[in-house]
Amino acid sequence: MKKVRVAPRGDLIFTVEQECSLQQFLTEKFAGKSRSALKSMLTHRRVSVNGTITTAYDYALRKGDRVSINRGRVAAELHHPMLRIVFEDQHIIVVDKRNGLLSMGTDRERDKTAYSILSQHVKREDPSNRIFIVHRLDRETSGLMVFAKSEEVKHRLQADWHRVVIDRKYVAVVDGVMPSEEGVIDAPLAENRNRKMFVSRTPDEDNAVDAVTHYRVLRSRGGRSLVELSLETGRKNQIRAHLEHVGCPVAGDKKYSSRSTDAGRVCLHAYKLALYHPITGKELFFSTSIPKLFDNLI
Question: Which sequence spans correspond to the domains of the chain?
Fold first, then answer.
């Protein structure tokens, strides 16, 4: 029997009876609507899954999930050229950050940051709302980040980060050809007086820390390679320093020895993130497209 009810304010609420994608579910429940009309419902933030606004057409639904279609006022959407919200509920926000934007403030810049943009966003709903930094991406790096909406959630994520995060991958355009098609860079990192990370040959003297990066070459052409990377450790500038160490710096990364003049940016992007929700325990999977510039460079 079709499980649907109408909430007092007019929202339609369905109960999922079998696993499927949100696209399949909406197509079945709204057979008379076109594909563009269904996408419009998502774009305008009118679809919620278990109380969380969801805009992903390929969102995986499980049996027992509740899908709500908001027919009234919807939550405010963030419009910012440097930041896009991928997922938001009452506990976390996952965003896609553009290169050139700081994750959080510094002594020189406090306003033009992901933290500041999201702080203003949540305060539109309630001035007492707050945002908490869980991890960072370099200013020059683009891609997926997660923020907490309470101190409790922040501590849960940070205290058990390696268990909570199921998968986290980056993609980079590098100058040169990697040592092998697939491999591991296991080299301790230290920081010099200019705040640049480098591979230390004398760990004790340099106060170096262990750093391990896994890589896989996706394709190579014209003296460049597109490489997928994942971190076993999360050190400052780890990928950039490790790739410089093996003679394949990230294209456009002048700080780490790149001589590319046509990149226009540091070509490093955090494009996959999967984690267990810190409150519900549900597996969440997010991905973004590889920047078109990266394809054009190879």
Answer: 4-69, 76-159, 169-270
Which of helix, strand or coil describes residue 125? helix
96 counts as catalytic: no
Whole-model pTM: value is 0.75
pLDDT tens-place string over residues 53-107: 888 888 999 999 999 887 654 556 788 999 999 888 889 999 999 999 999 976 6
> What ranges in the chain are assigned the alpha helix state H?
22-29, 35-43, 114-125, 151-159, 161-164, 203-206, 238-245, 292-297
- Assess if CATH 3.10.100.10 describes domain 76-159: no
Instruction: Give the ranges where 16-126 is alpha helix by DSSP (H).
Output: 22-29, 35-43, 114-125
Distance between CA atoms of 212 and 189, rounded to whole angstroms? 10
> Do β-strands 83-88 and 92-97 pair in parallel, antiparallel, or remain unpaired?
antiparallel
Dist. CA 61–CA 21, nearest whole Å: 6
Average pLDDT over residues 120-140: 91
The active-site residue, picked from 65, 89, 138, 253, is 138
Distance between CA atoms of 154 and 240, rounded to whole angstroms? 27
Render pLDDT for 157-177 as a digit per residue (tens, 0 to 9): 999 999 999 999 999 999 999
169-270 to CATH, choices 3.40.50.720, 3.30.70.20, 3.40.50.300, 3.30.2350.10: 3.30.2350.10
Residues near 8 by beta carbon (within 8 Å), at least 6 away in sequence: none
- Superfamily per CATH, domain 4-69: RNA-binding S4 domain (3.10.290.10)
